[in-house]
Amino acid sequence: MTESPVDAALKVDAPREPVQRAEQTLETPPEEQPTRVQVSERAQPAAPLAEAARESQNQPVLTPEASPAQQPTQPEPTPPPPRAQAAAAPPVEPRLEGKPDVQQAPEPEIRVTPAPVPPQPRPAPPQAPEPRPVSKPVPRPQLEIKSAPVRPLEAKPAVEPKTLKPAEAAPAVALKPAQPAAIQEEPQPASLPKPEPRPEPPPVVGPLQSDPALRGLWVDAFGPGFKTPGEVDRLIQDARAMNINTLFVQAVKRGDCYCDNSLFPRTEDPAVPAGFDPLADVLAKAGAQGIRVHAWVIPTAVANRAVRYPVTHPQHVVNAHGEGTEQDWLTRNAAGAVWAGNDQQLDLGNPEARAYVVEGVRSLTAAYGVDGVQLDRVRYPDPSGAVQDWGYNAGAVAAYQAETGTAEMPAPADARWITWRRERVNALVSEVAQAVRGARAGAVMSVAAITYGAGPGSRDAFTRTRTYSEVLQDWPSWLASGQVDLVVMMNYKREARADQARDFDTWNRFAASVKGRGQVAAGTALYLNTAAENLAQARRVVELGMDGWVGYSYRTPELGVEEGRKAGDQAFRELSSLLVGEKP
Predict the structure, then answer these.
(1) What distance in Å separates the CA atoms of residue 287 and residue 69, rounded to the nearest whole number?
(2) 5-55+204-580 is classed in which CATH architecture?
(3) Is the pLDDT of residue 378 over 70?
Protein backbone atom coordinates (compact mmCIF):
# COMPACT_ATOMS: atom_id res chain seq x y z
CA MET A 1 0.00 0.00 0.00
CA THR A 2 1.27 3.54 0.11
CA GLU A 3 3.61 5.50 2.26
CA SER A 4 5.12 8.80 2.77
CA PRO A 5 8.16 9.66 0.73
CA VAL A 6 9.86 9.43 4.04
CA ASP A 7 8.75 5.82 4.18
CA ALA A 8 9.69 5.38 0.57
CA ALA A 9 13.18 6.69 1.03
CA LEU A 10 14.30 3.90 3.31
CA LYS A 11 12.10 0.83 3.48
CA VAL A 12 14.04 -1.22 5.96
CA ASP A 13 14.57 -1.04 9.63
CA ALA A 14 17.63 1.10 10.19
CA PRO A 15 18.86 3.94 12.38
CA ARG A 16 16.57 6.89 12.07
CA GLU A 17 17.59 10.12 10.41
CA PRO A 18 15.88 13.45 10.50
CA VAL A 19 12.72 13.40 8.42
CA GLN A 20 13.46 10.14 6.63
CA ARG A 21 12.55 6.81 8.14
CA ALA A 22 14.64 3.66 8.00
CA GLU A 23 11.57 1.44 7.74
CA GLN A 24 10.68 0.15 4.34
CA THR A 25 7.21 1.47 3.71
CA LEU A 26 4.31 0.99 1.43
CA GLU A 27 2.61 4.26 1.83
CA THR A 28 4.19 6.74 -0.51
CA PRO A 29 5.11 5.32 -3.87
CA PRO A 30 5.51 8.03 -6.48
CA GLU A 31 2.54 8.75 -8.61
CA GLU A 32 4.07 8.06 -11.97
CA GLN A 33 7.02 5.78 -12.65
CA PRO A 34 8.72 4.46 -15.81
CA THR A 35 6.89 1.39 -16.98
CA ARG A 36 8.84 -1.86 -16.55
CA VAL A 37 9.45 -4.35 -19.33
CA GLN A 38 6.13 -5.82 -20.21
CA VAL A 39 5.71 -9.31 -21.61
CA SER A 40 1.99 -9.00 -22.12
CA GLU A 41 -0.93 -6.78 -21.33
CA ARG A 42 -0.61 -7.52 -17.67
CA ALA A 43 0.13 -4.72 -15.33
CA GLN A 44 3.76 -3.86 -15.00
CA PRO A 45 5.37 -1.69 -12.37
CA ALA A 46 5.69 1.86 -13.47
CA ALA A 47 8.73 2.48 -11.33
CA PRO A 48 10.87 1.03 -8.58
CA LEU A 49 8.57 0.19 -5.77
CA ALA A 50 11.00 1.85 -3.42
CA GLU A 51 9.13 5.05 -4.33
CA ALA A 52 5.76 3.34 -4.42
CA ALA A 53 6.32 1.38 -1.27
CA ARG A 54 3.77 1.57 1.46
CA GLU A 55 4.39 1.52 5.15
CA SER A 56 7.14 -0.61 6.19
CA GLN A 57 8.78 -1.76 7.09
CA ASN A 58 22.42 -18.93 -6.03
CA GLN A 59 31.83 -27.82 -14.47
CA PRO A 60 31.19 -30.99 -13.17
CA VAL A 61 34.31 -32.16 -11.58
CA LEU A 62 35.76 -33.49 -14.55
CA THR A 63 37.67 -36.46 -13.61
CA PRO A 64 40.53 -36.04 -15.96
CA GLU A 65 40.70 -38.87 -18.35
CA ALA A 66 44.01 -40.69 -18.65
CA SER A 67 46.13 -39.22 -21.33
CA PRO A 68 47.16 -41.55 -24.13
CA ALA A 69 50.43 -42.07 -22.37
CA GLN A 70 48.62 -43.02 -19.23
CA GLN A 71 46.12 -45.33 -20.84
CA PRO A 72 46.86 -49.00 -20.23
CA THR A 73 48.49 -50.37 -23.35
CA GLN A 74 46.52 -53.15 -24.95
CA PRO A 75 48.91 -55.87 -26.30
CA GLU A 76 48.72 -56.12 -30.00
CA PRO A 77 47.41 -59.47 -31.18
CA THR A 78 50.27 -61.89 -31.67
CA PRO A 79 49.93 -63.68 -34.98
CA PRO A 80 49.99 -67.47 -34.80
CA PRO A 81 53.49 -68.86 -35.05
CA PRO A 82 54.39 -69.48 -38.71
CA ARG A 83 54.21 -73.00 -39.78
CA ALA A 84 57.59 -74.76 -40.57
CA GLN A 85 57.98 -75.19 -44.30
CA ALA A 86 59.06 -78.67 -45.46
CA ALA A 87 62.42 -78.98 -47.26
CA ALA A 88 62.62 -80.45 -50.70
CA ALA A 89 62.15 -84.19 -50.47
CA PRO A 90 62.02 -87.09 -52.80
CA PRO A 91 58.68 -88.11 -54.22
CA VAL A 92 56.34 -89.45 -51.67
CA GLU A 93 53.74 -91.98 -51.78
CA PRO A 94 50.29 -91.01 -52.43
CA ARG A 95 48.71 -89.32 -49.38
CA LEU A 96 46.23 -91.40 -47.59
CA GLU A 97 43.26 -89.28 -46.91
CA GLY A 98 42.88 -88.62 -43.32
CA LYS A 99 46.43 -89.49 -42.38
CA PRO A 100 49.62 -87.47 -42.14
CA ASP A 101 52.09 -87.54 -45.01
CA VAL A 102 54.59 -90.43 -44.80
CA GLN A 103 58.13 -90.10 -46.19
CA GLN A 104 60.63 -93.01 -46.66
CA ALA A 105 64.24 -91.96 -46.09
CA PRO A 106 67.65 -93.35 -45.11
CA GLU A 107 67.99 -94.02 -41.50
CA PRO A 108 71.41 -92.75 -40.51
CA GLU A 109 72.49 -92.82 -36.96
CA ILE A 110 72.15 -89.34 -35.98
CA ARG A 111 71.91 -87.16 -32.91
CA VAL A 112 69.77 -84.20 -33.23
CA THR A 113 70.47 -81.12 -31.25
CA PRO A 114 67.48 -78.91 -31.88
CA ALA A 115 68.05 -75.24 -32.03
CA PRO A 116 66.64 -73.35 -29.12
CA VAL A 117 63.01 -72.67 -29.62
CA PRO A 118 61.84 -69.45 -28.13
CA PRO A 119 58.87 -69.72 -25.83
CA GLN A 120 55.71 -69.44 -27.77
CA PRO A 121 53.42 -66.63 -26.71
CA ARG A 122 50.02 -67.52 -25.43
CA PRO A 123 47.66 -67.46 -28.31
CA ALA A 124 45.41 -64.45 -28.36
CA PRO A 125 41.71 -64.94 -27.98
CA PRO A 126 40.06 -66.12 -31.15
CA GLN A 127 38.97 -63.28 -33.30
CA ALA A 128 36.79 -62.87 -36.23
CA PRO A 129 38.32 -64.26 -39.45
CA GLU A 130 40.65 -61.87 -41.12
CA PRO A 131 43.40 -62.24 -43.73
CA ARG A 132 46.36 -64.07 -42.28
CA PRO A 133 49.72 -62.41 -42.57
CA VAL A 134 52.22 -64.14 -44.79
CA SER A 135 54.26 -66.59 -42.69
CA LYS A 136 57.99 -66.09 -42.57
CA PRO A 137 60.22 -69.21 -42.90
CA VAL A 138 61.57 -70.54 -39.69
CA PRO A 139 65.15 -71.89 -39.71
CA ARG A 140 65.37 -75.67 -39.67
CA PRO A 141 67.10 -77.31 -36.73
CA GLN A 142 70.85 -77.75 -37.15
CA LEU A 143 71.78 -81.46 -37.41
CA GLU A 144 75.01 -82.79 -36.04
CA ILE A 145 75.87 -85.92 -38.06
CA LYS A 146 78.55 -88.42 -37.08
CA SER A 147 80.42 -90.27 -39.77
CA ALA A 148 79.11 -93.78 -40.34
CA PRO A 149 79.10 -96.14 -43.20
CA VAL A 150 76.04 -95.58 -45.21
CA ARG A 151 74.29 -98.69 -46.10
CA PRO A 152 72.67 -98.74 -49.43
CA LEU A 153 68.98 -98.61 -49.34
CA GLU A 154 67.32 -101.86 -49.75
CA ALA A 155 64.69 -101.89 -52.32
CA LYS A 156 61.34 -102.49 -50.84
CA PRO A 157 58.40 -103.67 -52.68
CA ALA A 158 56.28 -100.92 -53.89
CA VAL A 159 53.40 -100.21 -51.70
CA GLU A 160 50.27 -100.17 -53.58
CA PRO A 161 47.82 -97.68 -52.48
CA LYS A 162 45.34 -99.20 -50.26
CA THR A 163 41.88 -98.48 -51.21
CA LEU A 164 39.71 -97.86 -48.24
CA LYS A 165 36.28 -99.07 -48.26
CA PRO A 166 33.70 -96.48 -47.83
CA ALA A 167 32.89 -97.74 -44.43
CA GLU A 168 36.50 -97.36 -43.40
CA ALA A 169 36.84 -93.85 -44.70
CA ALA A 170 37.29 -91.35 -41.97
CA PRO A 171 34.67 -88.71 -41.93
CA ALA A 172 35.74 -85.39 -43.29
CA VAL A 173 36.16 -82.72 -40.71
CA ALA A 174 34.60 -79.46 -41.66
CA LEU A 175 36.58 -76.57 -40.28
CA LYS A 176 34.65 -73.56 -39.16
CA PRO A 177 36.10 -70.10 -38.92
CA ALA A 178 37.15 -69.11 -35.48
CA GLN A 179 34.43 -67.33 -33.57
CA PRO A 180 34.89 -64.80 -30.85
CA ALA A 181 34.62 -66.25 -27.43
CA ALA A 182 31.17 -65.80 -26.07
CA ILE A 183 30.89 -63.68 -22.95
CA GLN A 184 29.78 -65.79 -20.12
CA GLU A 185 26.81 -64.28 -18.38
CA GLU A 186 25.73 -64.77 -14.87
CA PRO A 187 23.23 -67.54 -14.66
CA GLN A 188 19.76 -66.11 -14.28
CA PRO A 189 16.91 -67.63 -12.43
CA ALA A 190 14.36 -69.30 -14.54
CA SER A 191 11.90 -66.49 -13.85
CA LEU A 192 12.28 -63.22 -12.01
CA PRO A 193 9.47 -61.58 -10.13
CA LYS A 194 8.26 -58.42 -11.80
CA PRO A 195 9.43 -55.36 -9.91
CA GLU A 196 6.67 -53.46 -8.24
CA PRO A 197 6.08 -50.03 -9.76
CA ARG A 198 7.48 -47.21 -7.70
CA PRO A 199 4.83 -44.96 -6.26
CA GLU A 200 4.81 -41.48 -7.75
CA PRO A 201 5.87 -38.75 -5.35
CA PRO A 202 2.98 -36.81 -3.88
CA PRO A 203 2.24 -33.47 -5.49
CA VAL A 204 3.95 -30.44 -4.03
CA VAL A 205 1.37 -28.45 -2.13
CA GLY A 206 1.86 -24.72 -2.00
CA PRO A 207 0.85 -22.67 1.04
CA LEU A 208 -1.97 -20.97 -0.85
CA GLN A 209 -3.48 -24.10 -2.38
CA SER A 210 -6.28 -24.15 0.16
CA ASP A 211 -5.14 -22.13 3.17
CA PRO A 212 -5.35 -19.68 4.75
CA ALA A 213 -8.92 -18.46 4.74
CA LEU A 214 -7.91 -15.09 3.29
CA ARG A 215 -5.50 -15.13 0.34
CA GLY A 216 -5.08 -11.62 -0.95
CA LEU A 217 -3.17 -9.13 -3.07
CA TRP A 218 -2.87 -5.38 -2.81
CA VAL A 219 -3.55 -3.80 -6.22
CA ASP A 220 -2.13 -0.27 -6.14
CA ALA A 221 -2.87 2.69 -8.39
CA PHE A 222 0.71 3.98 -8.48
CA GLY A 223 1.15 2.24 -11.83
CA PRO A 224 -0.72 -0.12 -14.16
CA GLY A 225 -2.96 -2.74 -12.62
CA PHE A 226 -6.66 -1.99 -12.98
CA LYS A 227 -6.90 1.29 -14.90
CA THR A 228 -8.21 -0.14 -18.20
CA PRO A 229 -10.63 -2.97 -19.07
CA GLY A 230 -7.70 -5.04 -20.38
CA GLU A 231 -5.75 -4.57 -17.15
CA VAL A 232 -8.76 -5.66 -15.14
CA ASP A 233 -9.18 -8.80 -17.28
CA ARG A 234 -5.56 -9.75 -16.71
CA LEU A 235 -5.83 -8.98 -13.00
CA ILE A 236 -8.70 -11.42 -12.56
CA GLN A 237 -6.89 -14.08 -14.61
CA ASP A 238 -3.75 -13.72 -12.53
CA ALA A 239 -5.67 -13.75 -9.26
CA ARG A 240 -7.27 -17.06 -10.18
CA ALA A 241 -3.86 -18.52 -11.15
CA MET A 242 -2.54 -17.68 -7.67
CA ASN A 243 -5.68 -18.91 -5.95
CA ILE A 244 -6.38 -15.43 -4.60
CA ASN A 245 -9.80 -14.89 -3.09
CA THR A 246 -9.55 -11.24 -2.00
CA LEU A 247 -8.30 -8.15 -3.82
CA PHE A 248 -7.53 -4.92 -1.97
CA VAL A 249 -7.99 -2.39 -4.78
CA GLN A 250 -6.77 1.17 -4.27
CA ALA A 251 -9.98 3.08 -4.77
CA VAL A 252 -8.87 6.32 -3.03
CA LYS A 253 -5.23 7.21 -3.55
CA ARG A 254 -4.68 10.91 -2.75
CA GLY A 255 -8.00 12.56 -2.24
CA ASP A 256 -9.29 11.24 -5.59
CA CYS A 257 -11.25 8.09 -6.40
CA TYR A 258 -10.75 5.54 -9.16
CA CYS A 259 -14.49 5.46 -9.44
CA ASP A 260 -17.32 7.70 -10.57
CA ASN A 261 -19.74 7.73 -7.67
CA SER A 262 -18.49 9.03 -4.35
CA LEU A 263 -17.89 12.26 -2.50
CA PHE A 264 -14.24 11.99 -3.49
CA PRO A 265 -13.78 13.46 -7.00
CA ARG A 266 -13.02 11.14 -9.90
CA THR A 267 -9.30 10.74 -10.54
CA GLU A 268 -7.69 12.83 -13.25
CA ASP A 269 -5.11 10.10 -13.91
CA PRO A 270 -4.67 10.14 -17.71
CA ALA A 271 -4.14 6.35 -17.71
CA VAL A 272 -7.85 5.89 -17.01
CA PRO A 273 -9.97 6.11 -20.19
CA ALA A 274 -12.82 8.58 -20.18
CA GLY A 275 -16.09 6.98 -19.15
CA PHE A 276 -14.41 3.95 -17.58
CA ASP A 277 -15.09 3.20 -13.93
CA PRO A 278 -12.19 1.02 -12.71
CA LEU A 279 -13.70 0.08 -9.35
CA ALA A 280 -17.02 -0.93 -10.89
CA ASP A 281 -15.29 -3.06 -13.54
CA VAL A 282 -13.16 -4.89 -10.97
CA LEU A 283 -16.21 -5.57 -8.80
CA ALA A 284 -18.20 -7.01 -11.72
CA LYS A 285 -15.45 -9.24 -13.11
CA ALA A 286 -14.07 -10.40 -9.76
CA GLY A 287 -17.52 -11.14 -8.41
CA ALA A 288 -18.24 -13.38 -11.40
CA GLN A 289 -15.22 -15.48 -10.37
CA GLY A 290 -16.04 -15.57 -6.67
CA ILE A 291 -13.28 -13.13 -5.73
CA ARG A 292 -14.01 -10.56 -3.02
CA VAL A 293 -13.06 -6.91 -3.45
CA HIS A 294 -12.17 -4.48 -0.65
CA ALA A 295 -11.89 -0.76 -1.37
CA TRP A 296 -8.47 0.36 -0.19
CA VAL A 297 -8.62 3.97 1.03
CA ILE A 298 -5.85 6.35 2.08
CA PRO A 299 -7.58 8.98 4.21
CA THR A 300 -4.61 11.23 4.98
CA ALA A 301 -2.33 11.85 1.96
CA VAL A 302 -3.91 14.28 -0.51
CA ALA A 303 -1.01 15.60 -2.62
CA ASN A 304 2.43 14.44 -3.79
CA ARG A 305 5.31 16.28 -5.40
CA ALA A 306 5.81 13.49 -7.97
CA VAL A 307 2.33 13.74 -9.49
CA ARG A 308 2.83 14.47 -13.19
CA TYR A 309 -0.69 15.48 -14.07
CA PRO A 310 -2.54 18.50 -12.77
CA VAL A 311 -5.18 18.12 -10.09
CA THR A 312 -7.71 20.70 -11.16
CA HIS A 313 -11.04 19.49 -9.79
CA PRO A 314 -12.35 22.32 -7.60
CA GLN A 315 -13.77 19.89 -5.07
CA HIS A 316 -10.52 18.05 -4.62
CA VAL A 317 -9.55 18.58 -1.01
CA VAL A 318 -6.13 19.98 -1.87
CA ASN A 319 -7.83 22.72 -3.89
CA ALA A 320 -10.71 23.35 -1.54
CA HIS A 321 -8.89 22.98 1.79
CA GLY A 322 -5.21 23.07 0.96
CA GLU A 323 -2.41 25.45 1.75
CA GLY A 324 -3.49 29.06 1.50
CA THR A 325 -7.24 28.43 1.61
CA GLU A 326 -9.51 29.90 4.22
CA GLN A 327 -10.23 26.51 5.73
CA ASP A 328 -6.87 24.79 5.65
CA TRP A 329 -7.01 21.15 6.77
CA LEU A 330 -3.37 20.23 6.10
CA THR A 331 -1.21 19.05 8.97
CA ARG A 332 2.01 20.81 9.92
CA ASN A 333 4.90 20.00 12.16
CA ALA A 334 6.06 22.06 15.09
CA ALA A 335 8.34 24.07 12.80
CA GLY A 336 5.44 24.94 10.48
CA ALA A 337 6.44 22.68 7.54
CA VAL A 338 3.51 21.47 5.44
CA TRP A 339 5.32 18.85 3.34
CA ALA A 340 5.89 15.55 5.11
CA GLY A 341 8.54 14.31 2.76
CA ASN A 342 6.85 14.39 -0.65
CA ASP A 343 3.31 14.39 0.72
CA GLN A 344 0.80 16.81 2.05
CA GLN A 345 -1.60 15.18 4.50
CA LEU A 346 -4.84 15.99 6.24
CA ASP A 347 -4.59 16.57 9.98
CA LEU A 348 -6.61 13.96 11.84
CA GLY A 349 -6.93 16.34 14.76
CA ASN A 350 -9.00 18.73 12.66
CA PRO A 351 -12.66 17.77 13.22
CA GLU A 352 -13.84 19.00 9.81
CA ALA A 353 -11.13 17.13 7.95
CA ARG A 354 -11.97 13.96 9.81
CA ALA A 355 -15.70 14.34 9.10
CA TYR A 356 -14.96 14.80 5.38
CA VAL A 357 -13.04 11.51 5.27
CA VAL A 358 -15.80 9.63 7.08
CA GLU A 359 -18.51 10.91 4.74
CA GLY A 360 -16.40 10.16 1.66
CA VAL A 361 -15.90 6.53 2.70
CA ARG A 362 -19.60 6.19 3.55
CA SER A 363 -20.63 7.44 0.09
CA LEU A 364 -18.27 5.05 -1.66
CA THR A 365 -19.46 2.06 0.37
CA ALA A 366 -23.10 2.89 -0.33
CA ALA A 367 -22.60 3.37 -4.08
CA TYR A 368 -20.56 0.22 -4.73
CA GLY A 369 -21.12 -3.33 -3.59
CA VAL A 370 -17.71 -3.65 -2.03
CA ASP A 371 -17.06 -6.59 0.29
CA GLY A 372 -15.09 -4.42 2.65
CA VAL A 373 -13.16 -1.20 3.22
CA GLN A 374 -9.53 -0.99 4.30
CA LEU A 375 -7.94 2.13 5.75
CA ASP A 376 -4.26 2.64 5.03
CA ARG A 377 -1.89 5.24 6.49
CA VAL A 378 -4.31 5.85 9.28
CA ARG A 379 -1.68 7.47 11.51
CA TYR A 380 0.47 10.55 11.84
CA PRO A 381 3.47 11.08 9.51
CA ASP A 382 6.84 9.78 10.59
CA PRO A 383 8.35 12.33 12.99
CA SER A 384 11.36 14.46 12.21
CA GLY A 385 13.10 13.11 15.31
CA ALA A 386 12.40 10.67 18.10
CA VAL A 387 9.19 12.45 19.14
CA GLN A 388 6.07 12.84 17.03
CA ASP A 389 6.06 16.49 15.95
CA TRP A 390 3.18 16.59 13.45
CA GLY A 391 -0.38 17.67 14.18
CA TYR A 392 -0.05 21.44 14.39
CA ASN A 393 -2.87 22.38 12.02
CA ALA A 394 -4.58 25.46 13.44
CA GLY A 395 -7.95 23.74 13.67
CA ALA A 396 -6.42 20.74 15.39
CA VAL A 397 -4.61 22.85 17.98
CA ALA A 398 -7.79 24.79 18.66
CA ALA A 399 -9.74 21.60 19.21
CA TYR A 400 -7.09 20.34 21.60
CA GLN A 401 -7.08 23.56 23.58
CA ALA A 402 -10.85 23.54 23.80
CA GLU A 403 -11.01 19.98 25.06
CA THR A 404 -8.16 20.35 27.57
CA GLY A 405 -8.85 23.89 28.70
CA THR A 406 -5.37 25.16 27.95
CA ALA A 407 -4.39 28.17 25.91
CA GLU A 408 -0.77 27.19 25.51
CA MET A 409 0.74 25.71 22.36
CA PRO A 410 1.58 22.12 23.30
CA ALA A 411 5.13 20.89 22.95
CA PRO A 412 5.73 17.80 20.77
CA ALA A 413 6.81 15.73 23.81
CA ASP A 414 3.88 16.82 25.99
CA ALA A 415 2.39 13.52 27.24
CA ARG A 416 -1.18 14.82 27.15
CA TRP A 417 -0.72 16.20 23.62
CA ILE A 418 0.72 12.85 22.46
CA THR A 419 -2.20 10.94 23.96
CA TRP A 420 -4.75 13.35 22.46
CA ARG A 421 -3.34 12.92 18.97
CA ARG A 422 -3.31 9.11 19.31
CA GLU A 423 -6.95 9.26 20.32
CA ARG A 424 -7.72 11.26 17.14
CA VAL A 425 -6.44 8.30 15.12
CA ASN A 426 -8.61 5.95 17.17
CA ALA A 427 -11.59 8.24 16.60
CA LEU A 428 -11.21 8.20 12.82
CA VAL A 429 -11.10 4.38 12.77
CA SER A 430 -14.19 4.14 14.95
CA GLU A 431 -16.17 6.70 12.94
CA VAL A 432 -15.30 5.14 9.57
CA ALA A 433 -16.22 1.67 10.87
CA GLN A 434 -19.65 2.91 11.90
CA ALA A 435 -20.18 4.57 8.51
CA VAL A 436 -19.14 1.47 6.56
CA ARG A 437 -21.35 -0.88 8.56
CA GLY A 438 -24.24 1.53 8.30
CA ALA A 439 -23.91 1.86 4.53
CA ARG A 440 -23.50 -1.83 3.77
CA ALA A 441 -24.38 -4.63 6.14
CA GLY A 442 -21.78 -7.34 6.31
CA ALA A 443 -19.00 -5.21 4.85
CA VAL A 444 -15.64 -6.02 6.44
CA MET A 445 -13.84 -3.17 8.17
CA SER A 446 -10.06 -3.56 8.08
CA VAL A 447 -6.86 -1.57 8.48
CA ALA A 448 -3.36 -1.93 7.08
CA ALA A 449 -1.24 -1.76 10.23
CA ILE A 450 2.31 -0.65 10.94
CA THR A 451 4.99 -3.08 12.20
CA TYR A 452 7.98 -0.82 12.69
CA GLY A 453 11.08 -2.36 14.27
CA ALA A 454 11.34 -5.51 16.32
CA GLY A 455 8.12 -7.25 17.17
CA PRO A 456 6.82 -7.08 20.74
CA GLY A 457 6.36 -10.07 22.97
CA SER A 458 3.32 -8.76 24.83
CA ARG A 459 0.61 -6.14 24.77
CA ASP A 460 2.53 -4.04 27.27
CA ALA A 461 5.69 -4.29 25.17
CA PHE A 462 3.72 -2.99 22.20
CA THR A 463 3.37 0.41 23.88
CA ARG A 464 7.14 0.75 23.66
CA THR A 465 7.28 0.12 19.91
CA ARG A 466 7.75 2.82 17.32
CA THR A 467 4.32 1.97 15.94
CA TYR A 468 2.66 3.08 19.13
CA SER A 469 4.97 5.88 20.31
CA GLU A 470 6.07 7.52 17.06
CA VAL A 471 3.21 7.30 14.56
CA LEU A 472 0.55 6.98 17.29
CA GLN A 473 -1.16 3.85 15.96
CA ASP A 474 -2.74 1.48 18.49
CA TRP A 475 -4.15 -1.23 16.25
CA PRO A 476 -4.31 -3.96 18.94
CA SER A 477 -6.91 -1.83 20.74
CA TRP A 478 -9.00 -1.65 17.56
CA LEU A 479 -9.14 -5.44 17.50
CA ALA A 480 -9.92 -5.67 21.20
CA SER A 481 -12.78 -3.18 20.96
CA GLY A 482 -14.26 -4.69 17.80
CA GLN A 483 -13.86 -1.44 15.87
CA VAL A 484 -12.17 -3.42 13.09
CA ASP A 485 -12.88 -6.93 11.86
CA LEU A 486 -9.49 -7.51 10.32
CA VAL A 487 -5.95 -6.21 10.74
CA VAL A 488 -3.56 -6.81 7.85
CA MET A 489 -0.08 -6.08 9.13
CA MET A 490 2.29 -4.48 6.68
CA ASN A 491 4.96 -6.88 7.91
CA TYR A 492 7.50 -5.80 5.34
CA LYS A 493 10.75 -7.63 6.15
CA ARG A 494 13.62 -8.92 4.08
CA GLU A 495 13.89 -12.68 4.45
CA ALA A 496 17.59 -12.58 3.48
CA ARG A 497 18.38 -10.66 6.67
CA ALA A 498 18.28 -12.85 9.75
CA ASP A 499 17.18 -10.02 12.03
CA GLN A 500 14.29 -9.02 9.79
CA ALA A 501 13.21 -12.62 9.24
CA ARG A 502 13.11 -12.97 13.00
CA ASP A 503 11.10 -9.77 13.37
CA PHE A 504 8.67 -11.04 10.73
CA ASP A 505 7.88 -14.08 12.85
CA THR A 506 7.72 -12.09 16.09
CA TRP A 507 5.16 -9.64 14.76
CA ASN A 508 3.05 -12.50 13.39
CA ARG A 509 3.02 -14.29 16.74
CA PHE A 510 2.15 -11.08 18.53
CA ALA A 511 -0.78 -10.35 16.21
CA ALA A 512 -2.14 -13.85 16.68
CA SER A 513 -1.98 -13.36 20.45
CA VAL A 514 -4.01 -10.12 20.51
CA LYS A 515 -6.61 -10.70 17.80
CA GLY A 516 -9.40 -11.51 20.23
CA ARG A 517 -12.59 -12.05 18.25
CA GLY A 518 -11.13 -10.36 15.18
CA GLN A 519 -8.87 -11.68 12.44
CA VAL A 520 -5.22 -10.99 11.65
CA ALA A 521 -3.34 -11.47 8.39
CA ALA A 522 0.31 -11.03 7.48
CA GLY A 523 1.00 -8.63 4.66
CA THR A 524 4.36 -9.43 3.04
CA ALA A 525 6.61 -7.24 0.87
CA LEU A 526 6.88 -9.26 -2.33
CA TYR A 527 9.04 -6.53 -3.87
CA LEU A 528 11.73 -6.89 -1.17
CA ASN A 529 12.20 -10.65 -1.59
CA THR A 530 12.92 -13.29 -4.22
CA ALA A 531 10.21 -15.75 -5.20
CA ALA A 532 11.75 -18.44 -2.97
CA GLU A 533 11.92 -16.02 -0.04
CA ASN A 534 8.31 -14.99 -0.54
CA LEU A 535 7.37 -18.67 -0.53
CA ALA A 536 9.23 -19.20 2.75
CA GLN A 537 7.39 -16.33 4.43
CA ALA A 538 4.00 -17.47 3.15
CA ARG A 539 4.64 -21.00 4.46
CA ARG A 540 5.41 -19.70 7.92
CA VAL A 541 2.26 -17.61 7.93
CA VAL A 542 0.18 -20.69 7.18
CA GLU A 543 2.08 -22.87 9.64
CA LEU A 544 1.41 -20.34 12.37
CA GLY A 545 -2.29 -20.61 11.70
CA MET A 546 -2.91 -16.96 10.87
CA ASP A 547 -6.19 -15.94 9.30
CA GLY A 548 -4.69 -14.66 6.09
CA TRP A 549 -1.80 -13.74 3.80
CA VAL A 550 -1.72 -10.64 1.60
CA GLY A 551 1.08 -9.79 -0.85
CA TYR A 552 2.27 -6.31 -1.75
CA SER A 553 2.01 -5.92 -4.53
CA TYR A 554 0.37 -7.34 -7.61
CA ARG A 555 2.31 -4.88 -9.76
CA THR A 556 5.73 -5.82 -8.40
CA PRO A 557 5.60 -9.49 -7.33
CA GLU A 558 9.27 -9.98 -6.46
CA LEU A 559 12.66 -8.32 -5.97
CA GLY A 560 13.80 -9.03 -9.54
CA VAL A 561 11.00 -6.87 -10.90
CA GLU A 562 11.74 -4.07 -8.46
CA GLU A 563 15.39 -4.10 -9.58
CA GLY A 564 14.49 -4.24 -13.26
CA ARG A 565 16.01 -7.69 -13.83
CA LYS A 566 12.83 -9.59 -14.57
CA ALA A 567 9.57 -8.97 -16.39
CA GLY A 568 6.50 -8.78 -14.21
CA ASP A 569 4.54 -11.45 -16.09
CA GLN A 570 7.31 -14.00 -15.74
CA ALA A 571 7.80 -13.18 -12.08
CA PHE A 572 4.11 -13.49 -11.33
CA ARG A 573 3.84 -16.90 -13.03
CA GLU A 574 6.86 -18.22 -11.13
CA LEU A 575 5.53 -16.96 -7.80
CA SER A 576 2.06 -18.37 -8.49
CA SER A 577 3.55 -21.80 -9.25
CA LEU A 578 5.41 -21.77 -5.93
CA LEU A 579 2.57 -20.47 -3.79
CA VAL A 580 -0.08 -22.78 -5.21
CA GLY A 581 2.03 -25.84 -6.04
CA GLU A 582 0.87 -28.90 -7.95
CA LYS A 583 -2.78 -29.70 -7.75
CA PRO A 584 -3.53 -33.34 -6.91
Answers:
(1) 76
(2) Alpha-Beta Barrel (3.20)
(3) yes
